[in-house]
Specification:
mainly beta; Thrombin, subunit H; 6 strands; 143 residues
Length: 143
Amino acid sequence: MTFSIIRERMRVIEMKDDKVFKNGEQDRRCKRRFQIEQDVRYKMLYGQRIAETGLGKTKNISSGGVWFSTESMLTTGMPVELSMNWPVLLNDSCPMKLMIYGCVVRSNDKGAAVAIERYEFRTQGTRQFQPVTQPQVELRMLG
């Protein structure tokens, strides 16, 4: 059941989005982009070692890539691992984390674009509901 929902979302993500920019050029990206703003952690990888880490915010995401803000410019061509909390709960109760593995294709002082090579959703356990405690009230008669 969950798998079919994810497959259904993938069909939506892969729809072509025909945009024309102010300069008259057509957007060449063939994947539909979604404006999802979430905190993201990134790790720049150098072989098996972590070369750099940082925090940012996703600006938009598609099945082919993600654009996110960075603390500094990232090196184009370097492999990167992104981790973000997914904004939708699995079965309305389980938080998920989206792990993205890819390569930096563009970077400037505002952020970086990563081409997605693979991704996976990881569950983070069920949400813990704290019981609501009622305040203790004491009534006293005056007089």
